[in-house]
């Protein structure tokens, strides 16, 4: 996911850092938990919409990642690798074909989100800056104002 989107959208992520996503495979390091395709796509969305400083808002990254999650679950009825692959013998041809289908679905959802909500944030489109977080100002209850 990371390499494909980095190259397609010229995200300027250093190619020698692709290994950062290695452990996402097989449901997070073969634990069978969160789908590695979806977690990889969440990393891509964060590269585009994530904050680089703690004073920047994480709202956009959270919103688009939540949409990725919801749309994927609507199609697959699960986010858990072990649920998504339950009908298949692990590492069988059928299992691998199912994973390829799932990777394609997650990539298509992510591409749609980028095309429809994040183009302005891409480096080649000017790299629009994120909004700053609301600040706590003389606010004893810590309510965002």
UniProtKB/TrEMBL annotation:
It holds the Pfam family C_GCAxxG_C_C. It comes from the Bacteria. This is C-GCAxxG-C-C family protein. It comes from Absicoccus intestinalis.
């Amino acid at each position: 996911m990371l390499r494909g989107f980095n190259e397609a959208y010229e995200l300027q992520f250093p190619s020698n850092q692709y290994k950062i996503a290695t452990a996402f495979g097989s449901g997070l390091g073969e634990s069978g938990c969160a789908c590695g395709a979806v977690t990889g796509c969440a990393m891509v969305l964060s590269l585009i919409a994530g904050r680089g400083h703690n004073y920047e808002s994480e709202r956009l990254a959270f919103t688009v990642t939540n949409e990725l999650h919801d749309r994927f679950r609507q199609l697959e009825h699960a986010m858990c690798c072990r649920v998504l692959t339950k009908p298949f013998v692990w590492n069988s041809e059928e299992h691998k074909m199912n994973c390829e289908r799932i990777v394609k679905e997650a990539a298509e959802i992510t591409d749609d989100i980028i095309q429809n909500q994040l183009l302005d944030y891409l480096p080649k489109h000017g790299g629009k800056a994120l909004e700053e977080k609301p600040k706590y100002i003389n606010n004893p209850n810590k309510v965002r104002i």
